[in-house]
Amino acid sequence: LAKTTQPISMDSYEGQEVNITCSHNNIATNDYITWYQQFPSQGPRFIIQGYKTKVTNEVASLFIPADRKSSTLSLPRVSLSDTAVYYCLVGDFASGGSYIPTFGRGTSLIVHP
Amino acid sequence: DTEVTQTPKHLVMGMTNKKSLKCEQHMGHRAMYWYKQKAKKPPELMFVYSYEKLSINESVPSRFSPECPNSSLLNLHLHALQPEDSALYLCASSQDQGSNEQFFGPGTRLTVL
Question: What is the largest CA-CA distance in chain B?
């Protein structure tokens, strides 16, 4: 089964770069890695997705090494509003071929003034 | 319209009640999901509908009954729930079942007395 491991929590300060790493040793060959952000009492919000190497959008960057057994979400110059839980998501394929998205345990990021 | 809406926002019910949670999206997405999220835990997949057909049931107890009346609507019927079923119930949709880019609704906070 695809399974992910993330740090439970991280602390940072405004203006710093934050890197959150997720381990996914058993990722399927054709699976993507997706990261979500969740604020309290809200639904998760898609941040970024990648398959290999590096992906960048207006919010974050995602670094994926060649073996794809891990990925690192990079948040440049965080602000207080980036305080949230960040989830790494990969999937499993059931015996019938159905794709089952599976969230990691999440990393609680606290940004301090 | 890139929004997933859920009603009600909050629901309190007794163990003998029957209630329904509703979810709606107008993005033309063909996959819709129900997740359950307990406090400080990641969302756990319950059901997946693909092209209005139930694709995945993650061994959810029969007191939870999903329904997909059409491609835009997803319901979750609740009957004879237990206090431990109290949680945030999240609905999500994606372009298709293989897509990890899911759009989540704000959730329904359910309390079972």
Answer: 37
Q: What is the pLDDT of residues B39-92, one digit of tens each?
A: 999 999 999 999 999 998 888 999 999 999 999 999 999 999 999 999 999 999
pLDDT digits (tens, 9 = 90+) for A76-107: 999 999 999 999 999 877 666 677 888 989 99
The nearest alpha carbon in chain B to A101 belongs to: B100
Residue entry with tokens 């899911």: B102
Query: Which residue of A lies nearest to B101 if distances are taken between CA atoms?
Result: A46
- Which of B29, B102, B103 has the highest number of chain A CBs within 10 A, making it the mutation to test binding with A? B102
Contact yes or no for A61/B60 (Cβ under 8 A): no
Report how far residue B23's alpha carbon sits from residue B43's, in angstroms, rounded to the nearest whole number: 16
**By C-alpha distance, which of A6, A39, A62, A103 is closest to B36?**
A103
Instruction: Map tokens 């960048």 to a residue.
Output: A56
| Backbone φ, ψ for residue B92 (5° rounding) | -145, 160
Residue B19, Cβ density class (10 Å: 0-12 exposed, 13-18 middle, ≥19 buried): middle
- Alpha carbon separation from B32 to A17, A110, B73, B99, B101 (Å, rounded): 35, 31, 9, 11, 12
Query: Given B44, B100, B104, which is nearest A91 (Cβ)?
Result: B100
Q: Are the C-beta atoms of residues B106 and B8 closer than 8 Å to each other?
A: no
Residues A86 and A72: their CA atoms lie apart, in Å, by 11
Q: From chain A, pick out residues whose CB is under 8 angstroms from the CB of B7.
A: none
